[in-house]
Amino acid sequence: MPALYSLAQHPALEEVCGQLAEGEAIFAYLDDLYVVAAPERVRPVYNLLQDALWRHACVQLHASKTRIWNAAGEEPAQVADLQPEDADPVWVGAWTLPPELQGMMVLGSPLGSDEYVQRQLQQKRDDQDRLLPRIPRMPDLQAAWLLLLFCAAPRCNYLLRMLPPALTQAYAEAHDAAIRRCLSALLLQDADQQLPATPAEVASLPLRLGGLGLHSATRTRQSAYWASWCDALPVMPEVADRLLQALNRGGVGAHSLLSASQAAAQLRDLGVRVPAWDEVMTGPAPRQPQPHPSEPGDFRRGWQRHADHVCDQRALEMLLPHLDPASRALLLSQAGPYGGRVFTVLPTSRDFDVPCAQFRVLLLRRLRLPLPLAPRACTCRGRLDQLGDHRAACANSGVLASRALPLERALARVCQEAGARVVRNMRLADMNITVPVSDERRIEVVANGLPLWHGSQLAIDATMVSPVTRAGEAQAGAAERPGRALHNAVLRKRRAYPELARAHRCRAEKNVGKKEKLLEGEAIALLAQATSLRAPDDVVAFSRLPAFSKPGQGARTRSHASAPHRPPPQVLPGGGPGRMTCGFASAQNHENTGAASPTYGPRAGRRLGRASPRGAQKSPR
What pTM does this model have? Predict the structure, then answer.
C-alpha cells in the first residue's frame, strides 16, 4: 500500500514541481509533504499542491496537521485562512507564542527555536524511557540484553545526526544515563545503584574492542552530525554547490553549517582523517576499517563508522592507563574479530539459547564485576576470588578439561558436516608415528577427506588459556600486547607435538580459545573454509553455525560461564558397568541445553581417565 500511494501522488508532485520558482522545493515521504518557499509564496504553492493532489490522487491536505514556520518570524500572507477552529496553530513562527511552541517536526526531527528543540528532545526521552524500565522485567536475560543492545541503545542516533551537537548534549547525556540504569538493573538487580565508572566505560566500547557495544551518545554526537552532512551532500546535487561554498567559508551565515564545520574541526583534533568538503563530493566513499568485519549491532555506516572507529580507539587508549594489569589483559583478550559474538547471536535454536545464569556470568565477567557466590576454596586449595580469575585459569581442578569438551565436539561436528571422516581423541601411540607405546599424548580431532589445503589431513588441537593467572595477575606480556597468552599457548603446543611438524604428513591446526572468546587466525580460516564445504543434507544444521562465525562458541562460552561459580567437577558413574558421563561442568551444560549427557565406552573411559589433568578424579572401572 505505501508504494501504491506514492505512485498515485507522484504525477501531482511532478506537476507542482514544474511551477516552482528558483530556490523552492517539495519533499515527500509517503503522506508527509514539506514545502520550502519564501513567505510570499507559501499560500500560492499550498493552493497548487492542494489542487494537483485532488485531481490526480483524490487526496486532500489536512488543515489541522499543517504547520508553517520560518526563523525570521515573518507571517506569510493569507495563512490565517488555513487555521481551523479548536485546533493547534498553523502558523507556529509567531513571536507571540511561547518559545517552546515555535517550531515544527520534520520526519521526526524538531525544527524551530532552541527551546522548542529541547522540549521535543525531552518528549523523545520520555517516550524512550517507557521502553527501558520494561526491559529488566523480561524473564529471559538473553532476550532482555538483545533488546537493550539492538533496540534501546541505537534509538538516539537519528536525532544525533539531524541536530547540531550543541543542542543534543543534554539529550545524549540523559540517554547514556538511562542505558546505564537499565544495564545496572539487569546485572545488579537495582536500577538506582549506579555501575562503577570503569565498567560503565568498558560497556560503552564496541564489542570488537572488548566492550559491550552500548555506544556512548555523548562521545559520538560530533561524528554523527558531521557524518550526516558528508553522507547527504553527494545525494543533493541541486543545492550542493551553494552548501559547499558556505562550508568552505567555515559555515558562516547558518547555525547548522557552522556546527558541521566545528564538528569537523573537533574530529580532526581527535585524529580522524577529515577530508575537505569538496573531496566529500568528488572523492571515494570511506574505506571501512580493517581487518575487523562488520559486527551485528553496529548500526553505523558510511562516514560515521569511519569517524567513530577512531573515536572508539581513542576512548580505549584513554581507558587502559587507568586499569590494573589483570583488567587490562582481560580487556585486550576480549577484543578482536568476533570476540563478542555470543552477545549478539539470536536465540533462534537450542544451540544459541544461553541460560540466564550463564549469560549473566558472561556479562559480569566482560565488565570485570563480582560474580555470584561460590565456594571459598578450589580443589587445589587455592582461594577462589570473586572475579572468577582463579577458576578460569586453574588447571588442577579439572574445569579446563571439561570446558574443552564442548569445543572439541563442535569442531568435530563442523568437519563432519563439511564431509570429513573424523576421529576424536586419537593417541599418538596408536598412529604410525615413531613414538613410545606408552605415549599418552592425544590429538582431539583428526579430519580426513576435506579438499582444504590440497587435501591435507587436519590435526586439530583445542586449548583453553586465560590471559590472567589463577593468582589474579596478568600473564607475561598479556597486559601490553593483545593475544600474548594465546601466542604462548600455540608455542607450547608446537613444542608438545614436534613429530607432527617434522613429519609434514598433516596440517596441524591450533584451535585455541583465549579465555572464552577468541580463536587463533588459522582456526578462523579453517572454520570459514569448512563452512563453504557443507554437504547438501547438512545445510539446515550448518546454517545455525555462522551466527557465531566460530562454530562451537555457544557451547564453549556456556561452559566457561558455568565454571567460575560452580563446585569442582566430579566424575559421576552412570550408563552401566564400565561407562561414565562427563565431568559435572559438562554434564550441567548438557542439562541446560536439553541434550543428553554423552557416555563413553570402557576403553574411552580409561583413556579419558588417564588424560585427566592432575587433581581430577579418574574414571570408575
Answer: 0.80
